[in-house]
Amino acid sequence: MQTATNLFSYKKYWAHRFGICKELPMNRAQMDALGWEVCDIILVTGDAYIDHPSFGMALIGRLLEAQGFRVGIISQPDWSSAEDFRQLGCPQLFFGVTGGNMDSMVNRYTSDKKIRSNDAYTPNGVAGKRPDRAVNVYSHRCREAFKNVPIIIGGIEASLRRIAHYDYWSDTVRKSVLMDAKADLLVYGNAERQIVEIAHRLANGEAITDLKGIRGTVHFVKQLPVGWAVKDSTEMDKPGAVLLPQNPYQEEPACDKKEDLPDFKNLEGLNEAPIHFSKHITKAMRDNTVVRLPSYEAVKNDAVLYGHASRVMHAETNPGNALPMVQQHGTRLIWINPPPIPLTMAEMDGVFDLPYSRLPHSAYGQANVPAFEMIQHSVNIMRGCFGGCTFCSITEHEGRIIQSRSEDSIIREIEAIRDTSPAFTGHISDLGGPTANMYRLACKDPKIEASCRKPSCVYPGICANLNTDHSALIKLYRRARKLPGIKKIFIASGLRYDLAVESPEYVKELVTHHVGGYLKIAPEHTETNVLSKMMKPGMGTYDRFKTMFDKFSKEAGKEQYLIPYFIAAHPGTTDNDMLNLALWLKKHDFRADQVQAFLPSPMSIATAMYHSGKDTLHKVSRKAADIPIPKAIKQRRLHKAFLRYHDPANWPLLREALKAMGKANLIGNGKQHLIPAFQPKGFTDTVAKNYSPKTKANKGKTFKTKYTFGK
Predict the structure, then answer these.
(1) Of the options 3.30.750.200, 3.60.15.10, 3.40.50.300, 3.40.50.720, the CATH number for the domain spanning 515-711
(2) Where are the beta strands (DSSP E) in 369-451?
(3) Which class for 1: exposed (0-12), middle (13-18), buried (19 or more C-beta within 10 A)?
(4) Is 435 helix (H, G, I), strand (E, B) or coil?
(5) Strand partners, 200
(6) How many CA atoms lie within 13 A of 241 on its CB side?
(7) How far apart are CA 687 and CA 682, in angstroms?
(8) Beta strands of 307-360 (E only): which ranges?
């Protein structure tokens, strides 16, 4: 894999003489107190400003400050005018814009497209403090406030919309967010490398239009560079007969001859430079080859072609071998550079060791920010995920190569929490990240890792080249819990139990010392055909882990329980699949309190399935069999109802469905039945919310509807 310039090796910008801020300024008075006339960089975010490394804008802000730049924050501005975007003045270098730690649409709407009543990233959880598609709106207002200032968009919202993408909320394929936001540059992923290089190059006098070819960025190009070869995506992953009646690269009718190539002469600017179109890339050509994705117009009008483009894009996500890609949007061409080189352990330490206050900005006073309350005593020990779950966007954003901090850096942060947090009671709420137990796990051979194109290192089984040794994590746990003043360390991040079972010593360590009575894990489903669309392990692995969990809990003298999480309405799921899952839940005496319905997030593999109706884990074509896609509101409600089969509010819908499915024998008042034949009088959905899942604590208790749990 290529090497990269160390994050902390750049010569500091002259403004470093102003020193380190207690907190980055959010208003003009704070700038004046610091002696600043201007900000070099202004970061605009849809979240409250929490000076904590779990919040992206704080991390990027502190990193740029460490480079010597004066950084201001505009948090949750009023987007009805440009006034709030002028409050810190005109930045010397650029605006950095993000929707926040969450995609603004996911933040504002449920999977059923209902507006959420709260926002965990806002003081006191108040909803409505950010607009729909916040990146677009904020960028437009920045441009209105200061017309000629470069605008760079980033964060998860921009990252997952970097190419033409299916948008669940409008049920359309939308353009790259770079187009819609009218920004100058997009940075994707965690973006430390990109943003530091961009800041220094702009400070050294380069124009924003000069910043081409930076890994982890997306930008416009007028023409392809001289001498570059163009690789047709349909040659890399032949989608079958999907090109008729429209050629994916132009709006003119396609030719019938299979050997005909796209007519690049009709694309603006591309006739100004020599283009070598190649079906076969030689090793010598590889460094100057770009993959041409079907255009926005093509994938917008052809769902199968969209599935093909998604497959090609996901094959180009390994920073060790990814090629750049181009995609036409009308008369403009966007260039997607390969992912950034992962941070080294020393760089990860440097990023997390920056002088965060670890507190909300003082402007919020005593207001409670729910997201901060949840993570203030948690420690991020790594980033990335090689699981490849199709419904998850972590891989598309953070990558599948694990970037871990050193043990010493993690211990320093735990000690800082202990010594400085006014609310600390001796309990660390989590040591984790995207997953709980991928810390320092990697491919055994860096050369294999750099050349691999597998979407997952653990599906359909654990790769023989993957190191699954959990000893470094065990050592970290043991050292952390011995620290003076630390009473308990919980592990709350999602556990990959298929990896955990490879290390019984780790499972014993976890169960004996780091579970607070309940451990959440995510089998996601029980049925093989659904799990295959999710790229998740089968229930045999869950059973192996549960056996270990129960064994080590008993040996520790603790009564502890697994809480499994499942997804309803995932692509590939039938009503019978959900019925079988409900029967499994009843058999194992699980009563889910909160349930999750599949939400098609931009760019995920499962979203490509949802939109195309095809299994995009395999080659797509019109002749390929369709997979079931639960899209209708009533069917999605039914699938969620199966997960909460115990809730009387769901019984009428379930009775109707079971009769239609020929499963009326599951309706009755015996233990062998899924739901009872009676309906509690006066029961409403509002009352349903008062029900709690079945636990030992509420077994036998009678609730408002006179329905008794445990009987």
Answers:
(1) 3.30.750.200
(2) 378-380, 382-383, 403-404, 427-428, 430-432
(3) middle
(4) coil
(5) none
(6) 7
(7) 9
(8) 325-329, 332-336
Report d(CA 211, CA 335) in Å as an integer. 12
3-state secondary structure of 581: helix
Q: What is the DSSP letter of 158?
A: H
The SS3 assignment for 105 reads helix
Fill in the DSSP letter of residue 341: P
Angle at which helix 303-315 crosses helix 605-612, to 10 degrees, equals 170
How many C-beta atoms surround the C-beta of residue 693 within 10 A?
15
Instruction: Write down the domain spans for the chain.
Output: 1-215, 217-339, 377-511, 515-711
Structure-token match 């019925």, residue found: 579
Position 518 pLDDT exceeds 60: yes
| 355-413 pLDDT per residue, tens | 999 999 999 999 999 999 999 999 999 999 999 999 998 888 999 999 999 999 999 99
Give the bridge partners for 545, in sequence order. none
For the four alpha carbons of 488, 489, 495 and 496, in that order, the dihedral sign comes to: negative
Residue type, 490: F
Burial environment of residue 687 by CB neighbours within 10 A (0 to 12, 13 to 18, 19 or more): middle
In 3D space, the residue among 588, 599, 580 whose CA is nearest the CA of residue 642 turns out to be 580
3-state helix, strand, coil in the chain (%, to 5): 35, 15, 50
Question: What per-residue confidence (pLDDT) applies to 9?
Answer: 97
Instruction: Identify the CATH assignment for 377-511 out of 3.90.640.90, 3.90.1860.10, 3.30.750.210, 3.40.50.720.
Output: 3.30.750.210
Task: Evaluate if pTM is beyond 0.85.
Answer: yes
Phi and psi (nearest 5°) for 82? -90, 0
By the 8 A CB rule, do 360 and 127 touch? Answer: no
Output the CA angle 342-152-80, nearest 5 degrees: 135
How far apart are the C-alpha atoms of 20 and 349, rounded to whole Å?
18
Q: Say how far apart CA 588 and CA 211 lie, in whole Å.
A: 57
- Counting Cα atoms < 13 Å in the Cβ hemisphere of 586 gives 21
Residue in this structure with the two tokens 């010569």, named with its chain if needed: 11
* Percent of the chain clearing pLDDT 70 (strictly above): 89
pLDDT score of 568 more than 90: yes
Where do runs of H (alpha helix) occur along 261-342? Answer: 296-301, 303-315
Nearest to 323 by CA among 370, 288, 372: 288
* Selection from 138, 81, 65, 146 nearest residue 104 by Cα: 138
* CA 208/CA 300 separation, integer angstroms: 30
Same fold, 1-215 and 377-511: no
Task: Please say whether the beta carbons of 485 and 479 come within 8 A.
Answer: no
Question: Which single residue is written with the structure tokens 């132009």?
Answer: 250
Q: Residue type at 533?
A: K
Hunting for tokens 């065990």 — which residue is that?
474
The backbone region for 586, taken as left when phi is positive above 0, alpha when psi lies in -120 to 50, beta otherwise, is alpha
Question: What is the CATH code for 1-215?
Answer: 3.40.50.280
Asked if residue 536 lies in contact with residue 565, where contact means CB atoms within 8 angstroms, the answer is no
d(CA 287, CA 465): 27
d(CA 305, CA 248): 8
Is residue 389 within 8 Å of residue 536, measured between CB atoms?
A: yes
For residues 600 and 617, give the distance between their C-alpha atoms in angstroms, rounded to a whole number.
16
